[in-house]
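Appendix B. Chain record.
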Amino acid sequence: MVLFSVLLGITALFFLFLILKTVIKKEFCVLCVAVVISWLGLFALYFYGKFNDLLVLGILIGESVLGLFYVVEKNVRKEFTLFRLPFLLSLIFFVYSAITFMKSSNEFLKSVLFLTGLWGVFLLVYFYRANKSMSVFVNKIVECCKKW
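Structure tokens predicted for this chain:
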């Protein structure tokens, strides 16, 4: 019953925001807004103990994370696409932290240290990207998703 209710809610919000988009004449992704409003509502209900399906919540938030990733990727200069991996992993970390409230401080610390190190490595690669041998590596990273 939970999944059906969520699907029905997203559908209702989709059409509501589709009408609103026509009325206010502003450009935005109706589907994205419907999903975000849904998981924000479910997250609030989860916080107050009224909703407990973390799988559905995680799927919806994951959709928004990937959507945000693509929006940022589309709007940054090509040279910054080098940071795809640390950026996506950081988004996953923040969402995981929000959903679980990082019940394990050891897990939180390990994740923060890993992400800090990863960002550090990618920043070094970025600053040395003009080096001939490094530029081949940078191009492979930047072009990682271009064949799709």
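Further analysis of this model is presented in Appendix C.
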